[in-house]
Amino acid sequence: AKASGSGGFQYFRPEMETNASDRLVLGSALSNALSDGGLFLVYQPQADLDTGRLRGVEALLRWRHQGETISPDRFIPIAEKTGLIHAIGAWVIRESCRAAARWKAEGWHDVRVSVNLSPRQFHDRGLLATIRSALNESGLQAGHLEIEITESMAMSNPAHTASALAELRALGVLVAIDDFGTGHSSLAALGTYPLDTLKIDLSFTQAIGTDPRVEIIVRTIIAMAKTLSLNLVAEGVETQEQADFLSGAGCRTIQGYLLGHPMEEAEFGQWRRGHGEL
Ligand code: C2E
Ligand code: CA
Ligand code: CA
Ligand code: CA
């Protein structure tokens, strides 16, 4: 089991992962979680290394089940299999828009909240309507919402990706490619998508200082993002050494434990005030 903290979690025992009947049990508990308040969001800050300014937050989903906080890496795959992901995903989008609208009302004028999409959500015809209604209901303008799809999702069906991203863009929503560097994309394919942000996968960030080959890859990704005029966010930054390398290489925006763990909304409010943000 992995250590906790408000953004932390416990891993399920491996045998639970592979046991189909447990998956059933967990699946039905998960469907209750949506109605009984067991699901909640935590928010992890992204900030500019040079100015120290807050750039945005990533919303990350948590499930409190029988006293433990379960990682999304464990329950999102179940939600994908059962189809619950549509209801859960819509809830995440709605909650994130509401939170961002509150922060904006508190004076964070250029607030940006990033929301993760799973493959099934991304391929769902109802996604656009879900996003549109979350924006309407919260009063948040589309430009304050960013959706994150992984690089492998983006590359698995290029035609669908191109049209889905174009629709999101037409709505005014920002688009980030998550886990970048892990999904075999070509510069040519990337160049054809309407994108705003590349997120450098944490496996690269965390090899900085230990693996010179990875440092070359990171420099290449940064150069690629510059060529395509994309914003960059380095994920999983835990040490000052990693931050210094990234900043020197031209990636100014970071996300990771060095800056802040994922936090519940109240704690995130304190974090913002502690960092001189409104
Ligand atoms: P991700 O989108 O790549 O999210 C980044 C993960 O890295 C998060 O794990 C975050 O807590 C963790 N992290 C952040 N900073 C650091 C750091 O400095 N060091 C290390 N070692 N880890 C760091 P988390 O919250 O457990 O989420 C895991 C994955 O679950 C996410 O990976 C994402 O793919 C998925 N996920 C989370 N929330 C949602 C959601 O609302 N919807 C969907 N579809 N997927 C979600
Ligand atoms: Ca993400
Ligand atoms: Ca990621
Ligand atoms: Ca990941």
Automatic annotation (TrEMBL):
Molecular function terms, GO-annotated: catalytic activity
Domain of life from the UniProt record: Bacteria
Domain EAL, first and last residues per copy: 23-276
Protein name: EAL domain-containing protein
Lineage: Bacteria, Pseudomonadati, Pseudomonadota, Betaproteobacteria, Rhodocyclales
Residue span relative to the full protein: 468 to 745 of 754
